[in-house]
Amino acid sequence: MPKTFRPILFQGNTEKKVYFEGWYYKQVTKDETEMISFIPGISLNETDKHCFVQYISVTKDHNHLPVIKTDYFPYPIDQFITRDEPFQVQIGPNVFSEKKVAIHLTKEGTKIKGSFSLHNLHPIQKTWLNPTIMGPLSYIPNMECNHGVISMNHSINGYVKINNRVIDFTGGKGYFEKDWGTSFPKEYMWIQSNNFKDPTTSLFFSVANVPLMKLNLEGFICNLVMQGKEYRFATYNRSKMTIQRLSSTEIKIILENKNARLTIVARPDKFGELTAPQNGVMGKKVKEGFSDHLHITLENFQAPFVYKDDGKMAGIEVVGYQMTD
């Protein structure tokens, strides 16, 4: 099967002059009080060619308020080892696969060690026209930024030890996606959660400025999975999107096509700083937010029915868009 249909695989090669690729593994504890995401990746450019692992963690303090920590661990490029069958990426002593992750990150003042397994991955629906979440755009070469959703929802077992504190992820939930290309978009928004009251529900939404030849287009993708059924809203399937509110306290987005209407309301709680690629260089700082206040309303025009749910442990990024106070 072509790599286009398997975005989990390393899509590039280490001989590229300007390139990045990164996998995003998100883990949430069973009691929804702790979250940690690991991002292994590679950065190819003329000035600082290397591979890396970065992380973002969220814990709750005694007042149940989020505490966010991030860090970036670079490694020499020769410590980037990847294989396709079965898929695996190794960066230094850290190993990432489709079934298991082993972490061993150290620097002065920080030691992170852990191992957890992934079970019952939930991939998105694919066709020859839409081989990835990007639909027909998946076939266009040299896109600035490609996106792949590997698993909308899965279970995890294992632990992560940060210095002397052990976090037990047994019985928790995971999410898995990735990006590759030359740069992150200059404008984009991303919202994701698979911790809803209905445990089968998972949401991914993204809108971005997409340079295509000499044009700059705004493209969006949203995938909602509920009770085993997938609802896809995207520019390429003639859906429409309205950003009704975009402020530091509330984001409201309405998506609609001939089958359904989806309303997403998110309230960002706190932001942490991650490092993102710009022309292959991992030097751009972006804010990834956390929210325990995510509400969705799905109006199905065909059944018909209305479904409402509340999500927690959501990830939110808003880059380049003007936000009101």
Automatic annotation (TrEMBL):
Coiled-coil segments: none
GO terms for MF: tocopherol cyclase activity
Entry-linked InterPro entries: Tocopherol_cyclase
PANTHER family (alphabetical): PTHR35309, TOCOPHEROL CYCLASE
Name this polypeptide is given: Tocopherol cyclase
